[in-house]
Design brief:
By secondary structure, the protein is α+β, with helices and mostly antiparallel strands. 31% of the residues lie in helices and 29% in strands. The two termini are 34 Å apart.
Length: 736
């Protein structure tokens, strides 16, 4: 800490408290706790002894968390089925003061369930000797059951002061040299930048694990019919993925591809479990296996046939490790796009000349999470402990928590690699709660194609369903750089599936809404049929005569290329209507009204279901209703996506459709249809021969999946903030 003191014969200078520290193996207990200093704490997690049994078989799958303050700084690997685990894992931690003890918590890992608490202990850092290795034995306790014996954890620790932080200056040195003080500030600033760089690297993904779940072979029969309904769960640290369910088979064919992110400092063990889906009761366990990523070479695809333990059968997978730093978090002081050289490199990476270089790397996204204002009070004290979660598909990063504040300032920069330009950036604000799961405070969803680069904007926070406003505004500054050609090509392949999605639940209001949406799409076809039939009935002679002449002209001159040509003309017509101000797109008020009161209705339904408990008891009926609800949603969304393509809801996609239709028109005009069908058939028949593990896809459906439905249009709609919350007005008020 810097103290300002007056010395005779000298001006007032900030000097360092002349407190000498003996670093030759003596205790640091004499050092005042108020004195700052950056320390390096090297910990070796040795082993555990006589830990508590938390599983049915009388064992546990223990792992250890280290926390300083409220922040998790290290997590060990999982040792399966062992009450005397040996970890021998090392962690290097930077500690800015010794007042906060090191908090050690041990958990029993349970796949798919909440991990069981196995005990905790504290390590008082002020009692450690500097520069001397110390073996520490910690007795685990449970605060709720202090008399229970939960075993011990053995550690080896070394506490060393960081170079450049403890500086000794005598009074004569201060009087004799002003430059020694400047030297301290230079070292202090250098250390801060180095710590910022360390903080940034600690949140950096070092690689991507690409997994393709191909098939299962000879799995264990769990149902009375001698078959199973298998699905597979994957877990790497906090990342999870659940495959689709394959009904009534022992040799399922999944053909599913997904990605995990790999941290260099964490254990690379993927836990895999196979399950049999049972409606109305708990799913049956089929077997488990693991993948040790440290044993696999990088930049190479490995085909693995894994034997299921505690069960029968095999799983066949393709695993590829790619060394790539894709996502990072840093303070505002470390900004990629403000560095001229880094910005030029990023622009060069996504320039039109690098179209065929790494087609999966579509673009670069930088998000500045600046602050929030007027948040909801979640605590009884009238305050909140807000933190922010930034998500792009499966990339998920968090800010720190600002305690007891409704107007927090985070000032964090997040960077992401974009794999699909049609992705939606989700920013969610939560209230941290040590005893319970975090409380939801608000959320915004921002399509990447709607972002205006470099503009600081105030986004009104929405509710969980993204249908209406909630209390608070969040200030973001976002930049997107991407290659348009790569983005267009990626539009024609399947979307990336999210690891963690909310489970479908039965909702009377949602079922009704989907039914109305589907009915609206069907009624468009019915009305068109009535209109055509009225032409045949000559209800309006001029209209029927015009239709008859048009019919003769089209049939006599019809060529196949005219189909995409007509669609192209329809897109062009709507485009000129929009730019001329004659936009004929109508807001779907029915959907909006239902979306606005959906949350209120769902709350009523939830309360009624808690009282009656009827739906929860009849699982089979519930699943059927959910299936109908989802089918209606898919049918309605399909029709709405076609409409929104021609309505220019997403201009990028509409322009892409124009390019494709132009190409199809030219191809159909110059190339006979039989040649086109021949090429299409040869490609379909030989696709599996050329690549046996290729994932089937339909380019047209993949394109339409990127077009938002009417519900998504409402969810992504930006609400207008209160003018009093604008950054400019706020700045003027502060100056005033």
């Amino acid at each position: 800490m810097l103290y300002s003191c007056k010395l005779k014969g000298a001006c007032n200078l900030p000097v360092i408290c002349n407190k000498k520290i003996n670093t030759a193996g003596t205790s640091n207990a004499d050092v005042p706790l108020a004195e700052p200093g950056m320390y390096q704490l090297d910990i070796t997690l040795r082993r555990g002894q006589s830990l508590a049994a938390r599983d049915r078989g009388g064992t546990s799958d223990p792992y250890v968390k280290f926390k300083i303050g409220r922040k998790e700084v290290f997590r060990s690997k999982i040792i399966h089925k062992n009450l005397n685990p040996v970890w021998e894992e090392k962690a290097c931690l930077l500690v800015d003061h010794l007042r906060e003890p090191l908090y050690i918590k041990v958990f029993d890992y349970d796949f798919g369930l909440q991990d069981d608490f196995m005990g905790s202990a504290f390590l008082d850092l002020t009692q450690l000797e500097l520069n001397r290795p110390t073996d520490v034995t910690l007795t685990l306790k449970d605060p709720h059951y202090p008399d229970h014996d939960l075993g011990i954890i053995l550690l080896s620790v070394i506490l060393t002061p960081k170079e450049g932080e403890h500086v000794e200056l005598s009074e004569n040195e201060v009087l004799g040299s002003y430059f020694s003080v400047k030297s301290f500030f230079w070292r202090f600033q250098t250390q801060s930048l180095r710590l910022s760089d360390v903080h940034r690297k600690s949140h950096l993904w070092r690689g991507i694990v690409s997994i393709t779940l191909i098939e299962g072979r000879d799995l264990k029969a769990m149902d009375s019919n001698g078959l199973s309904d298998p699905y597979v769960k994957f877990r790497l640290g906090h990342q999870k993925y659940k495959s689709k369910i394959m009904p009534k088979t022992l040799n399922p064919q999944w053909r599913e591809q997904f990605d995990f992110h790999l941290y260099e400092e964490r254990g690379g063990i993927i836990d895999i479990t196979a399950w049999d889906k049972d409606a109305g009761k708990r799913d049956d366990f089929i077997g488990r296996c693991q993948i040790d990523l440290s044993a696999l070479s990088r930049e190479q695809t490995h085909k693995l046939e894994l034997q299921l333990e505690e069960g029968e059968g095999h799983l066949v997978l393709l695993v590829t490790l790619t060394a790539s730093a894709t996502v990072s978090i840093s303070d505002l002081s470390v900004n990629s796009l403000e560095d001229r050289k880094e910005r030029e490199e990023i622009l060069k990476r996504y320039s039109p000349l690098r179209i065929f270089h790494n087609l999966k790397d579509v673009g670069f996204l930088q998000v500045k999470v600046i602050r929030a204002e007027g948040l909801m009070a979640a605590d009884v004290t009238g305050k909140s402990d807000p933190f922010c979660v930034v998500e792009l598909n499966n990339d998920r990063l968090l800010t720190h928590t600002v305690y007891k504040n409704l107007n927090p300032e985070w000032n964090k920069v997040f960077t992401f690699n974009i794999k699909d330009i049609h992705s939606v950036l989700e920013v969610t604000v939560y209230d941290e709660d040590r005893d319970r799961s975090a409380d939801f405070l608000g959320k915004v969803a921002i399509p990447l194609l709607s972002i205006q680069n470099g503009e600081q904007k105030a986004y009104v926070l929405k509710n969980k369903q993204l249908t209406g406003p909630t209390k608070g505004v969040i200030y973001l500054e976002i930049d997107v750089i991407f290659n348009a050609v790569k983005a267009s090509l990626r539009t024609l392949i399947p979307k990336e599936q999210k690891y963690i999605e909310e489970e479908n639940r039965l909702s009377k209001q949602l079922l009704l809404r989907n039914f109305i949406r589907t009915k609206r799409c069907v009624m468009v076809l019915v009305n068109a049929a009535y209109y055509v039939n009225s032409c045949f009935d000559w209800d309006s002679p001029p209209r029927s005569l015009a239709a008859f002449v048009l019919f003769l002209f089209v049939v006599w001159n019809f060529e196949l290329y005219m189909i995409p040509l007509v669609l192209l003309l329809l897109l062009t017509w709507n485009y000129f209507l929009i730019i001329s101000g004659k936009d004929n797109r109508q807001r779907d008020t029915v959907v909006e009204d239902m979306l606005e009161d959906e949350e209120e209705e769902d709350d009523k339904d939830d309360k009624d279901s808690e009282k009656k408990g009827f739906i929860n008891k009849i699982y089979a009926i519930q699943e059927v209703c959910i299936s109908v609800q989802n089918i209606l949603d898919e049918v309605a969304s399909f029709g709405e996506r076609i409409k929104n393509t021609f309505n220019w809801t997403v201009p990028f996609l509409s322009w892409l459709a124009i390019v494709a239709l132009c190409a199809f028109t030219v191809i159909l005009y110059f190339i006979p249809l039989r040649y086109i069908v021949l090429v299409w058939g040869i490609n379909k028949f030989t696709k599996k021969l050329r690549n046996p593990y290729a994932i089937d896809n339909n380019e047209l459906l993949d394109f339409l999946s990127r077009v938002p439905s009417d519900v998504q249009v409402v969810q992504y709609q930006e609400l207008k903030p209160d003018p009093s919350h604008s950054p400019c007005k706020r700045k003027k008020n502060n100056l005033g």
